[in-house]
Design brief:
By secondary structure, this protein is of the alpha+beta class. It is about 50% helix and about 15% strand. The protein folds into two domains: about 60 residues, Orthogonal Bundle (Arc Repressor Mutant, subunit A), CATH 1.10.10.10; about 200 residues, Beta Polymerase, domain 2 (2-Layer Sandwich), CATH 3.30.460. It is elongated, with a radius of gyration of 21 Å.
Length: about 300
């Protein structure tokens, strides 16, 4: 079966979200396309053609690869739960913003996509002052363990960068998706800088609108935070930051020694400007599953999506 470049991209967009059993509307498909020489109207017309060819299915306003109503029910239930948990996420973001050397917080993970399940974590992407990343990470970890009983459900912080290291080096569909969907909750001007430093994401998502930062908390520094930064903005702070980095790296090397060196560098980043802690290696799993699903679809439907 012969398909246009745009039709192939529509199908591949749905394949990516099918990994998460998540159907899309016509507007969402347009926003997630890797092609910008089109319009939402054209995409909607082509979706009708693909449905008539039985390459896709339509259920109300949603399009999906499988004729399964449970996908719709799951999505709508998850969308409603995400709206409820957004209030908790914003309260946690306010709390994080009060810690010294925190310059911005952004919601990531499933909540940033507008979807949550009962056991989903609230994930944060945190930007810190230079040379205080590991101090900030440790302070937040200690607070979570003591006062939040180590609950990841409302307070999961697994990615930190400092404000002088905002360009993400791994440039693929997974990292582009995570960056484009980040929701700024504190530090709107820092979010703007992060977005501009990673303008490469437009190669993957030329139609996806930049997140509106109107509801993000401004970068106001209270007196307590100001004083703590004055006290810790010294050699003592430098020593603590170095110590916490060595401690985390030693712990991770020992606990996750099953990873080979190449995989470890992707799943964990431990340097003065970046801390990434993804022991489940979600990025690798998603990219492998994407290729697997595309290969299966090509064989079953006798089409080429390349």
């Amino acid at each position: 079966m012969s398909l246009s470049v745009l039709e192939k991209n529509i199908i591949k967009t749905l394949v990516y979200y099918d990994i998460f059993s998540y159907p899309l509307t016509a507007e969402e498909i347009f926003q997630n396309l890797r092609i910008n020489h089109t319009s939402e109207v054209e995409v909607k017309n082509l979706l009708g053609n693909l449905v008539s060819k039985k390459l896709l299915f339509q259920k109300g306003n949603y399009y999906l690869l499988k004729n399964d109503n449970s996908y719709i029910m799951r999505r709508e239930k998850g969308n409603k739960l995400a709206q409820k948990r957004m209030k908790t996420a914003r309260r946690m973001s306010w709390l994080i913003s009060k810690f010294p050397f925190i310059r911005a917080t952004l919601l990531s993970g499933s909540l940033s996509k507008g979807f949550m399940e009962a056991d989903s974590d609230i994930d944060f992407f945190v930007i810190t002052h230079p040379n205080r990343l590991w101090f900030s990470r440790s302070a937040l970890m200690i607070f979570k363990k003591i006062f939040l009983l180590n609950s990841k459900r409302i307070f999961c912080i697994n990615y930190f960068v400092d404000s002088e290291n905002l360009e993400i080096k791994e440039k693929n569909i997974f990292t582009a998706t995570e960056l484009i969907t980040l929701i700024p909750t504190f530090g709107p001007s820092v979010y703007d800088e992060l977005y501009n430093k990673n303008i490469w994401i437009r190669e993957f998502y030329p139609n996806f609108p930049k997140r509106v930062a109107d509801n993000a908390l401004p970068e106001n520094m209270g007196i307590v935070k100001f004083l703590l930064e004055k006290i810790l903005g010294t050699k003592l702070g430098d020593m603590l930051d170095d110590y916490f980095m060595r401690m985390f790296e030693k712990h991770n090397r020992k606990k996750y020694k099953k990873y080979d060196s190449a995989e470890y560098k992707i799943a964990f980043k431990s340097n003065k400007k970046e801390s990434k802690h993804h022991p489940k290696f979600f990025q690798k799993k998603v990219l492998e599953e994407l290729n697997r699903k595309i290969n299966i679809l090509e064989r079953e439907l006798h089409i080429s999506l390349s």
